[in-house]
Amino acid sequence: MNHGTVSPALLAQFEEIVGAKWMRRRPGELVAYDADALPGYHATPSLAVFPGTREETVRVVRALADARAPFVARGAGTGLSGGSLADGIVLLGLNRLTRIIEIDAANRIAHVEPGVVNAKLSRAVAPFGLHYAPDPSSQTVCTIGGNVAENAGGPHCLKYGVTLNHVAALDIVLPNGKPMRLGNPYGETDGYDLLGLFVGSEGCFGIATDVWVRLVPLPQAVRTLLADFPSVDAAARAVSRIIATGIIPAALEMMDNATIRAVEASIYAAGYPADAAAVLLCEVDGLLEGLQADVDTITDCCVASGARTVRVATTDEERARLWQGRKKAFGAMGRIAPSLVVQDAVVPRTRLPEILAEIASIGARHRVRVCNVFHAGDGNLHPNIPYDASDPDESERVHAAMSEIMNACIAEGGTITGEHGVGLDKLPYMDSLFDASSLAMMCAVRTAFDPERRANPGKVVPVHSCREWHGTRAARDSASLP
Amino acid sequence: MSSVSGVRRSASSRPVRGAELAPQIADAHAAGSPLRIVGGGTWLDAGRPVTADRAISTRATAGVVEYTPGDLVITVGGGTTLEEIGAVTREHNQWLALDPFGSDKGTIGATVATASSGPLASGAGRVRDLTLGVTVIASDGSAVRAGGHVVKNVAGFDLVRLATGAWGTLGVITEVSLRLHARPEVDETVGVVLDDDTAVALLDTLGSTGLTLLALELVSANVIGSVRPAGSGGGAWTLLARVSGNRDRARAQRAILEPLGTVVQFSNDIWRSVRDMDGPQSATFRVSDAPSRVLGTVRTVRAALSAASVTDAALCVTPSTGRVRVAVPYSDDDDAPIRSLVKSLRGVGASAVWERLPADCWAWVTPAATDPISLRIRDAYDPHHILNRGIFGPMGGHA
Prior knowledge:
Chain A has about 475 residues and is of the alpha+beta class. Chain A has 16 helices and 20 strands.
């Protein structure tokens, strides 16, 4: 898709709204926005616009609507599915909207702009004994708006839930430029759960200009364990055993040997045993009373599953170091090869041993190195492949392996993405996961928000599955929208 | 999609649960003949002004579709009752932590459709938090499958959230996948009986503490009156807490309540009384505001009740969410106080939600889902609005 250049009239409008300083037009500038964190996909926007306020954002979207111009919203560009790529169309950058408007500590709600960085929010509310629970690995740079668009997860979502569970309300601007409130920061709303529908809609339903998120009290106490296993299979079985006890760990993460070696060879070395086939990083938190009993139970589960050692972090520094290795594992893999595919899929927890064996055999068959580092407690896999994207043969093998891994996860009763979104990367698998009538309904729902399909066009739902809805009453004139 | 391992098939290749209902629904759609969707039938007395030529029952879809206890996920037909799910999961020391108002005779389809969340929502999540996948039959008879049966899933637009709380207007729910929990080692209920002044003072602080228990509700004496344990005193309110986890943690949770008064042990059956506080015939509503303002919300509710000369309302206050749920009994020959109440609560704004009313009172309630986006979504699922027509209240041309 290439929509070419932006009309002089629209350019003049944008300049009037945001000022020339906050527009990028030259190819040399736009190259910074031609990719997200998914390697191998590049698309250059025709123009990048950076509104500085809610009002400017609404005006920019309205100008786009008047010109019937398609657009893509973008936060920090850390997405892993190609969702924020704008191919020859306008890119709307939201990372100037970084204000934390209100921290309502008594009600554990923060009202923020979409460009606020995830970790910065948690730091800002820490003095009140609170934190923002969803913690994607990119949390030091990714934005709350992007988290809302992708329904982002993270290690601690096992206990605390994903972004969906933490968004209380949104002010959005619809693709036609009209504002709308979804949800209610302080109470209930009747009617359809449009808020829940909007979270994870990958920029296809409009742009969130204001986000009210729920905050969670910092736990009274935390215990972090590292268990090392002689086989991936034993570690996977320990996961099921732990979950079956009824303990809901704050996080339960697995790293395989390839990941451990990458981490230990990097500046993020965490002291993981380099000869372990896999390690589990497990955290429990809450009231101090009862925490030791949970640690004992989890230790027993690991030992019974074949763990060689189980170590409990004794200091905050040790705990931070164990977590740094996990959170920076992707960065550590960056040392191995110039490109890294960070994949995302989910299987039922009990299928972890089988799927990990299957992934290993797929990797061997295609001669690619798969590093697994993932949210084991949720069954949310991240099979990552470091490779050289400039080598066509290797790229082809990587793509073939990824495709087989996705299909294997679907066959195990799983899904193609747990927290990274469909974007462009997962489009080819949507037909395997959903039948035609379900995909057609997704198209119809998108049309309800965006009859002209100008917001993030070509993403999430394959275009061919939408054909039968053309001209139906669901595609009414947008004039009747609020 | 053929299975690589030969063990499972992808959701889209499984037969559609409740496919036998599709022709009836499609015929009604073609004829423009409205249908009333019935599960356990427990919500039919909510008085909602549904107009229908016929009823369609989901009970034939009842039963377990798939349950692998190690996954802590169960997939059942929409017509399965909560009681039936409870019986199956109990065998594996697991449970579905949903306790909607009413009873376990209700179906999971109705629970999802009404998004009714009971006391457990504070600690275990609301319906929307535990529902992983939903299949609905849309009005043209097509099956729309959303979500899946894994605990994390962002593939495609989240139509599961739409089915949740749509009161059946976005298709007949024939299959639901749910997140289960392992039963905790300890799951007990304790309570503190409080007089009115103490309860009011407590509410002023309780909403802000961030205390998380499996359930914590402040209920008026008439909610649980007859089942109060002997020796627990005669206060106007009881603070009910569900303490859970391992023994040490449950003991610590109990200790948090001790400064508030004498902590009395209750049977977990007490929650049945809380869920059934509506009684045989009542008008029921809930009002929510910020947890820190929950005392103000209680005062607003009391003022409205008093203005309508209602003296026998049952109240259930959820400090963690700032929600006040109120059931007002009435008799058929005198629903004047209810009419007066509906009018006075209009001033409270959108946060007052009516659950049950005498049928003729719904006309005064601000209808839900009337914004253009919701109407377009409804048109996509059910262009002739044959499914539970009128259930959101009179909607002008869009009933």
